[in-house]
Specification:
Layout: H1 4-32, E1 36-44, E2 47-56, H2 60-99
Antiparallel strand pairs: 1-2
Helix pairs in contact: 1-2
Length: 116
């Protein structure tokens, strides 16, 4: 029970890595949904005159949805990473205080009156 904060911190860091990977995947999907820019025109007197331009194979709705999902996953990854670091620090401090024989350190789990 003394290492619960350390284990929780490691789990949050693994979740943060997973969210980061999902953010990368969705961002790449959004980049693929942009399509290819093309244009039509003609050359006259050594100059190119553009008539029309557009995008082939682009899906703006998919691009926007994928980029929004990527941002959400990046934010979740950041929050999970912060929580993971905080839990790791709490766990290491608690574990170090217990190992150093701190006299004033008393865990709620060690109090015999609170046990069921």
């Amino acid at each position: 029970m003394k290492r619960i904060f350390i284990i929780t911190g490691i789990m949050f860091l693994l979740i943060a890595i997973s969210f980061g990977i999902l953010g990368i995947v969705f961002q790449k999907q959004g980049n693929r949904a942009k399509g290819i820019q093309v244009g039509t025109g003609y050359f006259a007197n050594g100059e190119y005159h553009k008539i029309d331009s557009g995008t082939i194979g682009g899906n703006k709705a998919l691009q926007n949805d994928s980029e929004t999902a990527a941002i959400i996953f990046y934010v979740c990854a950041g929050i999970s990473a912060i929580m993971g670091v905080v839990f790791l620090l709490i766990g290491v401090i608690r574990y170090a205080a217990k190992d150093n024989g701190a006299e004033n350190y008393k865990s709620i789990y060690e109090d015999k009156n609170l046990r069921m």
